[in-house]
Amino acid sequence: MSNICNCQRRNFIKLFLTGSVGLSYWLSSSLLAQADYKAKALVLSCIDFRFIDFEQNFLKDNNLNHQFDWLSLAGASLALADFPSHADTVVFWEQLDLSYQLHHIEKVIILDHQDCGAYGTKFDVKLSENPVQELSIHQQYLSKAKSGIQEKYPNLEVELYFVYLDGKFKKL
Fold first, then answer.
1. pLDDT value, residue 21
2. How confident is the model at residue 18 (pLDDT cuts 50, 70, 90)?
3. CA distances from residue 13 to 17, 18, 32, 94, 96 in whole angstroms, order as listed
4. pTM metric for this prediction
5. How far is Cα 24 from Cα 26, in angstroms, rounded to an integer?
6. Which residues lie closer than 8 Å to 78 by C-beta, 6 or more apart?
């Protein structure tokens, strides 16, 4: 009798999951099929997992919840400076172009963060021990990224942020 119960449970789970996946696919297909689908922004962030919750909450609090394209590259703004390789810069520009064409974004948001391993690798592993210098270097690269974006997409707004380990955001 327990074999029958286990078999019925497995069949129910399969049916439920198939239905859930099918429904999810149908809903996402329906959303994608809408001609007026539009993302508010392309968000570029670092790959550092420590900041994901902070970033998601920040985006939600700024009325972007689930209405943005998200690109994560090591060092965020460093990706526009051929770090760790030129391929990262190419990926950024290709993704920005697609986001602009397909989702009609109006702005780009770049989120750099404190204690970034990519910045430490490029400059100094102890960079985060000097918060003034760390912020200054991030500001330089964020500013260069903003200039590059505005040169190619003059109608896009560009917002720059520095995220601290405690989850506070500083607009630059």
1. 37
2. very low
3. 6, 8, 28, 40, 40
4. 0.77
5. 5
6. 84, 88, 118, 119, 122, 141
